């Protein structure tokens, strides 16, 4: 279902507010991302139960009205959402206040720096499979460290051994093809 249609009035209002700023809309990932000097500042989207403004470095906003939530259940580090369930919740003056602060933070260079890459150990079940299949081990070793890490984390996230084994079976053809676990989302 296209949730954008569910929130037409709300999203239209958010767009009109964003259009009053100095931000430049740029199409990324199939949506308009509002940028300042090439830096992502904010976007808006409709979801099943709410529509939201997404602040890319929202963790640094003062949030004096206590409206921001972690964007993905604590998995994101910098991104914050301001969720709305009706147009009546949208106060243009307050929204512009948050947007202006986000722009100023960007101008001031306030942003979350990416963490330095750190490899993770190969899970025991995957390691055993790699050792028993030399072609697979060679293909795995040819992957970038980032792709190797994606696969290792994918296996480690499973709690049950049966799930880990199913995941290994799923990723073996991908590893042999030299593709990363999340490559299809990175286009």
Notable characteristics:
single chain, 187 residues, alpha+beta, 6 helices, elongated
Shape assignment? elongated
**Number of DSSP-assigned strands:** 6
Radius of gyration: 21 Å
Please list the strands of the largest sheet in the order they lie side by side: 1-2-3-4-6-5
Strand % is: 15-25%
Q: Which quaternary structure do these chains form?
A: single chain
Helix content: 40-55%
Low-confidence stretches: none
Largest sheet, strands/sense/barrel: 6 strands, antiparallel
What structural category characterises the helix and strand content?
alpha+beta
Average predicted local confidence, pLDDT? 91
Order of helices and strands: HEEEEEEHHHHH
Cα(first) to Cα(last) distance is 22 Å
What is the count of DSSP helices, taking H or I runs of 4+ residues? 6
Report what the structure shows.
With 187 residues, the chain is α+β, with helices and mostly antiparallel strands. It contains 6 helices and 6 strands, in the order H-E-E-E-E-E-E-H-H-H-H-H. The chain has helices at 8-18, 92-107, 124-132, 134-142, 145-157, 161-177; strands at residues 24-28, 31-36, 39-46, 51-55, 68-70, 80-84. A 6-stranded antiparallel β-sheet has the order 1-2-3-4-6-5. The mean pLDDT is 91.
